[in-house]
Amino acid sequence: MRLTTKGRYAVTAMLDLAYHSQTKPVTLTDIATRQTISLSYLEQLFARLRKGGMVKGVRGPGGGYTLSRDAHDINIADIIEAVDETVDSTKCGGKSNCQNDQPCLTHDLWMGLSDQIRAYLKQISLGQLLERDLVSEVAKRQAEQIEHVIELPTRQERILA
Fold first, then answer.
1. pLDDT tens, 43-68?
2. Cα separation, 67 vs 46, whole angstroms
3. At what angle do helices 133-151 and 28-35 cross, to 10 degrees?
4. C-alpha angle with apex 133: 18 to 84, nearest 5 degrees?
């Protein structure tokens, strides 16, 4: 199965956004820091997510991003598709040209697997993921770790103290 980093990062960033934007917009810098994803890469992903109708930007002080609709109305497959990714288990990308421009012997098997994975991801919404205890625990831990890092004095501040 091919699900590239782009698809995984998009889902991770959207789940982070869903969790943290319940009270206020979230900056890409905050997501990048919590999820250790490059800010410039997130900017590219969010341009696609915005174009795909998954997120909306809030300008000005205290701005950032929020979900464009309720977390229960955004499924994981749609997020992956919004960043121009596909979930594909075939070696031909679903084009049926795996062997000498013809389908290979196992083409239907891998197409069926791809369809099952896609159907599974369509059934799971961001809202459902937010309801999982582990997601909440991890999100809280990540937020605390970032706050702790921010509170640590710099070396120069420790020397001056």
1. 999 999 999 999 999 998 889 999 99
2. 11
3. 100
4. 40
Under 8 Å CB-to-CB from 90, ≥6 apart: which residues? 98, 107, 110, 111, 114
Q: Could you tell me the pTM of the whole model?
A: 0.84
Q: Are 89 and 110 spatial neighbours (Cβ–Cβ below 8 Å)?
A: yes
Tokens of 65: 């991003």
Look up residue 73 and give its two tokens.
């109305």
Buried b (16+ CB within 10 A) or exposed e, 88-119: bbbebebeeebeeeebbeebeebbebbeebbe
Element containing residue 61 per DSSP (H, E): none
- Judge contact between 84 and 45, C-beta under 8 A: no
In order of start, what are the domains of the chain with their CATH numbers?
5-87+127-160 (1.10.10.10)
| Cα four-point dihedral sign 56, 58, 63, 67 | negative
Tokens of 31: 């997501």
